[in-house]
Amino acid sequence: MSDGTDMSGDLGGSGGSDGRDAERAARAARRDEAVRAAVEQGLLGPRTPIVGLLDVAGIRESAAALRAAFDAVAAPGTPVLHAFAVKASPLVPVLRLLHEAGIGAEVASPGELALARAAGVPAERTVLDSPAKTPDELTEALSLGIAVNADNPQELARLDALVKASPDTASPLGIRVNPQVGGGSIEALSTATATSKFGVALRDEGARAWVVRAYLDRPWLTRLHAHTGSQGIPLALMAEGVRETYALAEEINERAGRRQVDTLDIGGGLPVNFASDETTPTYAEYARVLREAVPGLFDGRYGLVTEFGRSLLAKHGTIVARVEYAKSAGGRPVAVTHAGVQVATRTVYAPGAWPLRIAAYSGKGRPKEGPDVVQDVAGPACFAGDLLAAGRALPLLEQGDYAAALDTGAYYFAHHYAYNSLARPAVYGFAGGGDGDGNGSVAFAPVRREQAIEEIVAEAGGEYGDSLTGAFRRGGAGGS
Predict the structure, then answer these.
(1) 170-183 tens-digit pLDDT
(2) Rounded distance, CA 392 to CA 466, Å?
(3) Predicted structure pTM score
(4) Nearest in space to 178 (alpha carbons), one of 245, 246, 249
(5) 3-state DSSP call for residue 263?
């Protein structure tokens, strides 16, 4: 099967070890068999032309790899909490799967906190980060014992009042800092630039001294948080942000004359390779880079918190969409599918930063064969730029075939963009398959059902259909 793309400028690997080759082959085989089984079992077809698929075995493997990577470099007995960034996949069954795999939750809104609680993630394995926490959010977090990282001095002032009112709260509390070490290749995702909206900017005049004094004045501040990583950020820059944060914790503890800061939250943001099936960089590689750059981080004096999201799920999700029509324009074939801006918003609006591999499948869900043909893979939305891929070389997609957008397990099908009031697609987890010859038995479990038309109407104010015409009739309230 050809994925029809050359994205060598991204983070693609160059082959790797035999173990990585086997991992890639197994992942691709599971995906192929899941697409075939989805068609055969009726999850995909003329009436259900788009679906999201999640590889449950792959997600478990990622969770295990994350835990093993940090266990390998940390001193025995070091408390480590890996908290999944819920924004990457705000789906309750996914959060529960990760929880059972030993992963907690990092939340950034009341909605995300509610999802984590619905998934059974305990308060002591939950972290609240957000640049705009309300007093009610902070009150709830402290009442539950959820860890909170204050983003700025005004929020810390709110915590002062809440801690005074509830001095026995079990919530670990800290401050988020911005080490201002620089950005990566995607400016909109870079969180450690000089003017980032997140955290206290450490290199601004007087900021570092203010942070140190804030800790010395508040013995209940015991954590320090920074998040440098994201897609497009090199590992060395991520490690530099962690090193700066570690140095600040050491300074605070030296000034306090005790180990006041006992836990460092180093964020997440490990980049994902969208160029091939290879997982690169790996958690093990990042952990080794951190150990070399910040050896004291792992000597057992500090507990650790991580907040990975995309890297845990991206390689284990696939959006599959039926080709409704095959046409041509200007001599170029165009496959019009049911996957576009509503599920791949970043890719459609910023294709250079977020290219996706596309795999071609026949109407029976089998990998298509034949020579590659340069073609466009278009979505259903009513604007010209709604393209999953432009000028991509693939086996020719024909009416009734399926186009699969690969590496979409994080952010894509969980963050719906309601352009043209297109429905949210169903999402299924799958297990089984992977024998590579099409004979594996694949089972599916629902993660989220397809959005009903009635729900679209309700979300669009259907219950208030007469409110404007009824309340503001000519001559009535507000009329002239």
Answers:
(1) 999 999 998 866 54
(2) 48
(3) 0.91
(4) 245
(5) strand
